[in-house]
Amino acid sequence: MATTVTVWNEYVHEREHEAVADLYPDGIHGAIADALGDAGFETQTATLDDEEHGLTEEVLDETDVLTWWGHAAHDEVEEHVAERVKQHVLDGMGLLVLHSAHLSKPFRKLMGTSCGLKWREAAETERLWVTNPAHPIADGIDDYFEVPEAEMYGEHFDVPEPDSLVFTSWFEGGEVFRSGCCYHRGQGRVFYFRPGHETYPVYHQEEVQHVLANACEWATQEDGSGVVRGNHDPIEDLDTSDDRTVH
Amino acid sequence: MATTVTVWNEYVHEREHEAVADLYPDGIHGAIADALGDAGFETQTATLDDEEHGLTEEVLDETDVLTWWGHAAHDEVEEHVAERVKQHVLDGMGLLVLHSAHLSKPFRKLMGTSCGLKWREAAETERLWVTNPAHPIADGIDDYFEVPEAEMYGEHFDVPEPDSLVFTSWFEGGEVFRSGCCYHRGQGRVFYFRPGHETYPVYHQEEVQHVLANACEWATQEDGSGVVRGNHDPIEDLDTSDDRTVH
Amino acid sequence: MATTVTVWNEYVHEREHEAVADLYPDGIHGAIADALGDAGFETQTATLDDEEHGLTEEVLDETDVLTWWGHAAHDEVEEHVAERVKQHVLDGMGLLVLHSAHLSKPFRKLMGTSCGLKWREAAETERLWVTNPAHPIADGIDDYFEVPEAEMYGEHFDVPEPDSLVFTSWFEGGEVFRSGCCYHRGQGRVFYFRPGHETYPVYHQEEVQHVLANACEWATQEDGSGVVRGNHDPIEDLDTSDDRTVH
Amino acid sequence: MATTVTVWNEYVHEREHEAVADLYPDGIHGAIADALGDAGFETQTATLDDEEHGLTEEVLDETDVLTWWGHAAHDEVEEHVAERVKQHVLDGMGLLVLHSAHLSKPFRKLMGTSCGLKWREAAETERLWVTNPAHPIADGIDDYFEVPEAEMYGEHFDVPEPDSLVFTSWFEGGEVFRSGCCYHRGQGRVFYFRPGHETYPVYHQEEVQHVLANACEWATQEDGSGVVRGNHDPIEDLDTSDDRTVH
């Protein structure tokens, strides 16, 4: 059965700035969905202005992996939708958090940290080095690849130490950044991927598209493992007559 | 300079149930503060009924490590106080999360997961095995120790994979649990420690007190590392004339 | 292209003890290869008595995942073959290390620790709890499964903290064990899986076979990431005229 | 009780090259021992030419932390001494592995990987960024520090993913490197620290000395946790009459 990827975008810059619209005429979501479609995924898109931001229970139930791009309008994402996304991740949905979505509500809720970082817009060279060549998200990537014009993100990046660190970036201006970070959360898998900026053609770059496709494949949960929580009878023979409870 | 530990307790069961008061006549916080005081820490206590729950900016500024016990009244902890605690952890304060505080607001905020688990009250045997004997929190502990009467907590425990797993519990009724979990979050250190229950004398047990003291020592940040975030000029020579920004 | 799994077995107990031969008439390797073949993998077997233990460069070049079972004859594995296996793992071959192979030469070389543990043969109940339900190796497994008759392995298990801990075992006699441990090493993936004993029918059990199949799928590297090491010219403009070298 | 640090150096370059001797008139070991002595540690030194390389059982028994510098003579370290060092680490001794000691026998044995990397000698700028500001090894360090003249080491660095990644380096020529890597192995703690080169005055730099002192403190095991391995009677009541063993 095909993997269904829902590509979410706040879709603000593209409608307000001609330069962004020129780069991404169908929106950043359109560019990402096209690339993932070409890679063999079933894709659909959703944006901030859609009812429930396009992320109803029904849509998320049918989503294997959600990709999230946001920047100017993090605060406009409704609390209950952000919580719903988080819950679906804990229940097994994959989540790809892209570039400036480091400050998005779902990511911050799932990480538990500020997710802050250093930044600078100077169209500088970024070089992403593979720091875990055994990881499937690095599959088919050389020992590094370059983004010729990038916004700089620098350490300290306030996230939990990743369960696996797949990419580490070098920036022309002198900084480094943990650019490809994998997390397991509940039954779900989360991948933060740094490249991607509204005023540079990053999502049209082949290596970036290749990593996004690898990450969608990695983040797709099949059946998952059964999870049981709550009050629980003993499996072994056990005297359960203790009555000191104050519950 | 002495380490200052602030011992927080919701302090509900002890005032409502004679059996609990008999076990902990000075409250669970009193028992923990006594033990940590004997181990050489400066201690102070704070409870739910105190103004701002006893956790003002001033108190937290002077706190090296905060220990947290709660069970019946998680929802009564005010949102802004829980956020303040979280922020102080990210800024370098240590946090020990004890037993049923797995569902406390500060811990859930910092973990980003549901923190749910299996549970059962049957006064059964728990055996805590050291799974990382190189970790300072296990210092002076044999290869295992027992809690003769314990509430069972079982997997799946919905927390991020710990940065280090110091203890793993065996339960008489058939379950296992990751009972001693270390996390780095921002500049702070967090330790979840499972043992401790209102109707069993767990906090009077020598090994439990020993682990708490080890954990306070581990969680104490000295100067910390300098953290800089936000917009940042390049360190290297760099042409910063790019004006395509939509910021 | 189909995944090729090479199933290695020292194949000693089955030829020396009728009770073992009755359980595993085609050898432990035969039972495992049958199960993996039924799950859709291309399989081949190799044993200690084969020339080069059946693990020539040619065989390993064609192997996506190697499974290893040994117990009585670890020392009879030739050093250069153990090194060859290790090198192929670092170059991207998957490795499944089964039960008593915790003391095998390839695993000890790859872990760098003693890989020692506690043990007891008493045909006791083992219950494997899923501690990472987001991991693909747990896919399709309930929150736990039981091995009715197991040799006990207990902590402290002297291995590096796993990159992911998928299963944790409970034993009837009172111990716990980290039973499903994932490691990335070089470009390869290693999974240690505890169940499996020569005198109990563990490899005929459905859940065990299911986990082995999941693990083979997880451990299969596709193209891998390009790895470059050694002396390296600068990518950026750099004055390389420094001549203070003593190389 | 004071922490005893044994500073080991192959001590080859300093005796063969005047330029190195000028930088390190008492040897690299002398410079490191002086710095650690100033920081309050008891220090002693040992070199390749000493009997048993100065690392007898007696010396290692009294050593809390061993620091290791080697480059030209890794192969001259006797196998049994390298094994002895490894065993002492597994038994609780701390180990600091410095710069070109990434290819030393004790480190390669403990990591289980090739420990290879990219390198270049061009006296270029290195900038070490703190990627875990919560870790005690980063205590008192700003968000980064620079080594003005450094040999470049670049990814992929073939080591296991560190238990904590404290520093990540930026190099002028375009590469990044995981420069401060913590590992728990057995009961011991290992820290790999990249800076330090025979033809540059790196070990006279204040920040480098500060990190070395922090790392010695971190790596010092006090009592340690009791470790028991081998055949083991059940703790719980258990029928141990099973006689199907082939042991």
TrEMBL record, chains A, B, C, D:
Region listing for Disordered, in residue ranges: 224-247
InterPro entries linked to this entry: Class_I_gatase-like, ThuA-like, Trehalose_catabolism_ThuA_prok
Ranges annotated as biased composition (Basic and acidic residues): 230-247
Top-rank taxon, per record: Archaea
Recorded coiled-coil stretches: none
Domain ThuA-like: 5-219
Alphabetized Pfam families for the sequence: ThuA
Record protein name field: Trehalose utilization protein
Organism: Natronoarchaeum philippinense
